[in-house]
């Protein structure tokens, strides 16, 4: 008896969704062969999925966002696929594409080699601040939040480097949690306990949203006691000593410095791809793929990338609803061709939705954003996202796979790119 494995690296938004898709729409239709079984294996450092989207609120207060709303056990979510699903708590450390094997270091320190028939890379990204990345397990990230909450209790000045959605959401959540909810008509708190400053390198915040939305965000931030400095970069942030309560000196590009009790780096992200061969990566260390089929063409047959570590995407969970069915349909096509020896079927193509789209809660009752190119009123941003950071709306379907109950309609596309590039699909 041998097992052919669809191996998924990463068990977060993209990895869990890919595994559900494979169990629902791929495994059941693979050719039946004597002595061969099929299986989906997910490798992830933590046993628990982390709802990163709510990170800014939990950083501000665990009363507003309790830990049990943030973490969800991965393995039980696949109980419906008994015998066909396998979870490995660990980290991929190396991929041997010639031998089609991934080396994994398990959480207990054991080394494992896992052979794959098809490989899905969904290892996402890490943030410069430890507040928004689960590197090992739930307990470690909870400890990070605990330490941050005790720092916040005594802080008078908080500086946030960066002015993307994470920085703006964080500024709003922190400022409201420490300075209190402003009155209905208030434009700023009377006696703010903490001064929160957002440092924007550009002349506006929120790069993918229009300037008027950024202005509205600035007004909402001001209401809770957060201000924005524009056209300025953080050059460095250094701690005066190793003492827990030591001040940070934040050096800015205009020559000024700010003394801060807390500095949070919310500038950019780093793809988790350092275990992959350099030739598979683009110049931003994302996994380079065919932007239509999501095949990693430098990696040999049956390797795909989904989620924020892929070169095809500007990122975000919503984009994965378009990308995952594409990558997984093409995986199925290639795997069936490989196992049956038949000519592969047509490709499915990914189309990026580049419309102005982003929701940014600011505190627990306001927010800015746009959907499908249309600016949304604050109350809608609150209703969709700010209320609970979409936990009620999305977590259940994500964890139990109902989001991918159907594989979605698609138009078969001729097989062009791979053939032209001389890469193997089957
Ligand atoms: C604070 C914050 C708020 C956000 N809010 C929103 C939002 O409102 N809407 C939205 O669309 N997007 C939002 N995003 C972006 C969203 O979180 C990402 O799009 C999403 O996390 C990407 O999912 P992913 O599965 O590709 O990667 P990740 O979520 O980064 O997951 C990657 C997984 O792979 C694991 N991993 C890493 N290395 C290895 C390895 N070597 N082997 C095995 N596993 C590994 C990681 O531990 C992790 O579990 C937000 C991001 C942040 C930081």
Automatic annotation (TrEMBL):
Signal peptide: none
InterPro entries associated with the record: FAD/NAD-bd_sf, FAD/NAD-binding_dom
Provenance organism: Paraconiothyrium brasiliense
The keyword Transmembrane is assigned to this record: no
Keyword Glycoprotein: no
This protein's name: FAD/NAD(P)-binding domain-containing protein
Family the entry assigns: Belongs to the FAD-dependent oxidoreductase family.
Stretches assigned to the FAD/NAD(P)-binding domain: 6-320
Swiss-Prot/TrEMBL keywords: FAD, Flavoprotein, Oxidoreductase
